[in-house]
Model the fold of this input.
Amino acid sequence: MTLLGIGDFARAVRLSAKALRLYDEKGLLVPARVDPVTGYRYYAGSQVERARLIGWLRRVGMPLGRIGEIVAMEPGAAAEAVRGWWGGVAAETAVRGELAAFVADSLAGAPPGPALALRSAALSDRGLVRGENQDAVHAGERLLAVADGFGAGGARASAGAVAGLRRFAEGPDPAPGALLGALADAVDEAARRVPARAGTTLTALLPAGPRLALVHVGDSRAYLLREGSLSRLTRDHTLVQALADEGRITEREAASHPQRARLVRALAPPAARPDLQLRTPRTGDRYLVCSDGLTTTVPEAAILRALDGSATPAHAARTLVTLARAAGGPDNVSCVVADVAAD
Done:
């Protein structure tokens, strides 16, 4: 077997010798032979493709630990894992871009723009199996929220979380530069209202001038219907979503996974910090905030048809709850639907 010294191999794969030494230390690309006296590294020609793959993944910013998992997979699974990872990166980058734009506008003293006008409706249903409804909902001009409680006192947890955000929504508008801090304080207030030995998901939209602030923790969800296309705005904080993001299971496998309801983040003592987004809505947008009692029973294609085919938010909410009950209603189901109006 012909071996290449580290210098020749580095030129062949367009990586530096320093990078190759790092990949050796991390176990990503172990040399075929190391001279026992000089410590000089030699590589086999069969290692070229692996080295180039590692190099390309590093160029797109993938962490070394994740690269180690990718290169150990079969090509098909590795391709899906790379697509899944990049989808998450792109979504996170877009979210951070909105936040950065908001901070920049605040620093520049840009006028906040006209306030949003929302027309909304909410509906919560116990379902056909559960003995208690532990969901809490709110639909108003200043707050759209769904919380799904669990554990002893789950109903009090969800109601308390929504009440904490409602205090923020009913108060005076914070100055643009103080908005993010005020939202953080509101989430802290919501967390303080969650009783011990209980927890809740929390997904909420709060108008902030011309933008919508999205607060999210757990596996309730927010969706946007825009020009006939439905997009999911949140990522579930569940074990199976983490496995799907890492490429260990497919999205289809995640939908039927036996542990799909296992949360890895929720609003529970000690409180987890929810995700925060700022979004720029358009007139004609329709938003949906819902508990997992809807999304685990009703396919997204059916959710799209119900949202797109309903004349009003109230009709859409009723249709979605009816679909969940028709699918067996195994869990509490809650929906808040809101339209962004022209005025």
The radius of gyration is 24 Å. Residues 306 and 320 are 7 Å apart (CA to CA).
